[in-house]
Amino acid sequence: MPHSVDQKAEALPSAEVEMAEAATDESANQGAAEDVDMTDATETQTSEATKSEAKELGAFEKGQERNGMASDTGGIKVEDLFDMDSDDEEFPSSAMPVKKEASDSPDLLPSSPSDAGPVQHSGSDPELLRTFYQRLFPWRYFFQWLNHSPQPTLDFEHRELSFMLSNDAVMRYQSYRTADLLRKDVLRLMPTRIEIGPVYSTNPRERKLLQNAGSFRPVSKELCFDIDLTDYDDIRTCCDKANICIKCWQFMTMAIKVINAALRDDFGFKHIMWVYSGRRGIHAWISDKSARTLDDSKRKVIAGYLEVIVGGAQSGKRVNLRRPLHPHLTRSIDLLKSHFQDDVLEAQDPWRSPERADKLLQMLPDTELREALKRKWDASPERSSELKWKDIDAVAKTVTSKNFDPKALLDAKQDIVLEYTYPRLDINVSKKLNHLLKSPFVIHPGTGRVCVPVDLRTFEDFDPLSVPTIQQLIHEIDAWKEPEVKSEKGVHDWEKTSLKPYIEYFRTHVNALMRDEKDVKVKRERDGEDNGDLW
Amino acid sequence: MNRIDNKRRNVVDHRKKQYADPAYKETQYPHRLNFYATPPTADITLEQFEQWAIDRLRVLAEIEACSFRNKSPVEAAAHMRPLLEKYLPLDSNSSSSTQLSAQRQKDHYSHFILRLAFSSTKELRQRFARVETMLFRLRFNADDTRERQAFVESLNLDWEPVPDEEKRKFATELIATVISSYGKKAYQSIDEEQFYRVDWTRVPDLVEQRKVFLRAGKAYVPAKELQSLVVTEFTARLEKSLELTARALPRLDEDDRLTPILDHLSKNFVAPDAGYSGGNSAIDGAEITARNIDNLSQHFPMCMTVLHRTLRRDSKLKHFGRLQYTLFLKGIGLSLDESLTFWRQSFNKMTDDTFNKEYRYNFRHSYGDVGGDSNRRGGGYTPYSCQKILTEHAPGPGEAHGCPYRHMNMENLAVQLQASGVTDPAVLRGVGEDKEKQKFHLACNRVFEHLHAKELKQAKDERIMTASQLETIVHPNEYFKRSYLLKNMGKAQPGGGGDVKMEG
């Protein structure tokens, strides 16, 4: 951390370092804490300065002001620090003169670090990370995605971003006015992880200056979903815990299919983006205005509507649905049927072992049927799940008892199909407006993979294991050769890498979102509402 | 002050004028139900003011208690009927009651008095809106069909009927939702069913339970589900006007007769299930330390026993499990240091580093050792009550928290119970029945009584514990405390000193 440490900073009773999931031992991270405290002090001063010095300061100057203050507190001119930061010796061409368009288009020269061979497999190598943030992260589209407009609005300025630093300290309540200011600060802090929170009613940085704590409250955020393969551990046989392979990834494909259909057809949301979380899960971000402004109770409703698999590990049969099935479930079964055959019965073979077959038996109705099946399967161990599944109907025909109800069996079979295919949502992520979720395009620290959006047109072919890693990307920039015919526009660094299709997809998504948002605004202006204070 | 002068002078300014209008004096109550849109304007006596408010408060408190006890709507209605008749009767138009107008006036006025009393803080507002909604729903369901229809029409809610053409287009879907929600008998034919198309956000509970067909953000609500629409509308409007009341409250034009009454009312509206105060939880003489937890766990209620077993089996607990368990341990008097030791030792499959990085902070946060000002000042979180465990955060995949009587199926529950020494088939059957009827706290108390049968008898015989100390347990920490004291009766009170401790 190229920061001077402010020694006077006594552990202020400040909640600036708020640990989200992870926590840190204070003594071990003294440096971080102080660093952060300083930021806090800076904030306060800045805001006061901003207050007293009227508002004619341009946005950019304000940012400068902020940085200037930081330097005063630390006793070092912050400009120097920044120069050092951006004039990285190894990447002179990527120096960041603060010009408007430059946010993600550094110079063309493919200057390369000489030693950038295949480095150790880690997503948090500071040098690689710096290059990534400097040259590859799509700051501009990221900004537009959260801002819903090319010009800075409060949607971005009041948005909470939270950084996890390399020492695992978490800085909450960061906010920025423009993409450039954000980029600068990210390069200064070099977070290993960036999380996105809600838009607040006031600027998150100024939350402590408010007289009335109630006036700082979350007002909007994308509706989010989180699906994690660890939740499939009791039904997948190929991998467990954090490991994944293309076989169990099919559960994610099914999840996208089902949830996407419901969000689109049932709730009428249009701007849905699915993002690979870098290791074993996916996130969905729904940016429609109607979704962003949902309050907690409405989010809970959507979560409840989509949640089918209930109860913990010990609840027994976990899908118990009313009949006839709700249209959403009928559609889901239609979408999932073929996956159940191919990706579950064949690929996972979930009931091969006798213990697991017992689990299947427990979910079936009628004692006579269960006993008959048990006898049959005990006689031929190692019978595949596919055959066992077929056995159910075959054996059912031989059941003679009067109480046997074929309808109940059919229902139970449907429930089983759902239990083994229906998406398992981490529902708490979706329920709360102020839940933080990892941003797209950051690097997963464990795998080094970029959290890329999943193209909905080709999501069935998405292979998480072929998602580019940070090492690979940097390598690709270096390996890139300038084409014979130079295009006039120049080439962005990301266009030289395999990140290109993902960023292009992101751009398309963002543009469509902004177009819709603009239409709404035009309408509003026509209604005679003053729009001026939005920027 | 000129405020008083104004009153004395009885100036008819524009605000007073409307009160002078006789149309307001005689508020008409054509319907039994009321959306409480217009505030009352006539004069009532101070005694009425207080008495009416107290009567309504009684009713609301009891309604809330019903929801805490997880009563079904039908049970709650049966339970509430005598109370409502006594304190807040409302007869239908068709009844020949001569009290119609007076009853409705009381209902109307008492609602507005309580609005004043409960608009001051956000918590009170939310709670008031919640219980008022419950009361409204109760009455709505009990209303005469025709009168209900008339009332709904008088509300002028804009609902768009689904045209026949569209109805036929989505016939399969619509029929499925109707039959699954009301059964085959209720359904006649698609042409007879009337549907309304509304924004899905207006019928959240129907959407959450998948009782309506959704398409492009619109819910197709069967006419039978009118209730949900009306109730949601009621809540929304009430919340909005409570907000307005709160803002107007500081400017209440009032002499000092009403404020004390209002204060008194809002203070008395404490939940029957208030947080378990840390003060009375610690037990003298018990060794509450990390290494003694295994030994103490024999006194834990099932919800905590299950967590403890899961923790011992997996050396890990998921987030809500950790939260529920650590707060319980905090409640029985485990200090922060001991707690950290306990968790560190229990999570024995991870390195110190991982533990410190990912978990230590959370445990400290729940003890109020770190975090924001309010967290630290408040000493962290309070241990969860049964109510909270039953209703919030139902366990998901791989999670072991929650109430076993509610969230486990009977087979798994029986296994857990047998592991705790509950083998008597009669008790197990009783638990099963309780579970079936959703009387989870009864099941838990049944198990407690079974496990402590001998001690309870002794305690009763020797009058060591008073009746109030033996009433139904509604908090896991209470379960522990009582269990510990009962099992240690002999040791804890060699000279009858136990009694004193019991008061603690």
Automatic annotation (TrEMBL), chain A:
One GO CC annotation: alpha DNA polymerase:primase complex
Segments of skewed composition (Basic and acidic residues): 50-65
One GO MF term: metal ion binding
GO BP terms: DNA replication, synthesis of primer
Keywords (A to Z) from UniProt: DNA replication, DNA-directed RNA polymerase, Metal-binding, Nucleotidyltransferase, Primosome, Transcription, Transferase
Compositionally biased tracts (Low complexity): 105-115
CDD domains reported for this sequence: AE_Prim_S
Disordered: region residues: 1-124
Entry's transmembrane regions: none
Superkingdom, taxonomy of origin: Eukaryota
Coiled-coil intervals: none
Biased composition (Acidic residues): 81-91
UniProt keyword Membrane present: no
EC number per UniProt: 2.7.7.-
Family per record: Belongs to the eukaryotic-type primase small subunit family.
Record's protein name: DNA primase
UniProt source species: Immersiella caudata
Automatic annotation (TrEMBL), chain B:
Residue numbers binding [4Fe-4S] cluster: 303, 386, 403, 444
Domain DNA primase large subunit C-terminal: from-to ranges: 297-480
InterPro entries reported for this sequence: DNA_primase_C, DNA_primase_lsu_euk, DNA_primase_lsu_euk/arc
Gene Ontology CC annotations of this record: alpha DNA polymerase:primase complex
Alphabetically ordered keywords of this record: 4Fe-4S, DNA replication, DNA-binding, Iron, Iron-sulfur, Metal-binding, Primosome
GO aspect biological process, one term: DNA replication, synthesis of primer
GO molecular function: 4 iron, 4 sulfur cluster binding; DNA binding; metal ion binding
Entry cofactors: [4Fe-4S] cluster
Domain of life: Eukaryota
Co-factor binding comment: Binds 1 [4Fe-4S] cluster.
Keyword Transcription regulation: no
Family: Belongs to the eukaryotic-type primase large subunit family.
Role: DNA primase is the polymerase that synthesizes small RNA primers for the Okazaki fragments made during discontinuous DNA replication.
Protein name: DNA primase large subunit
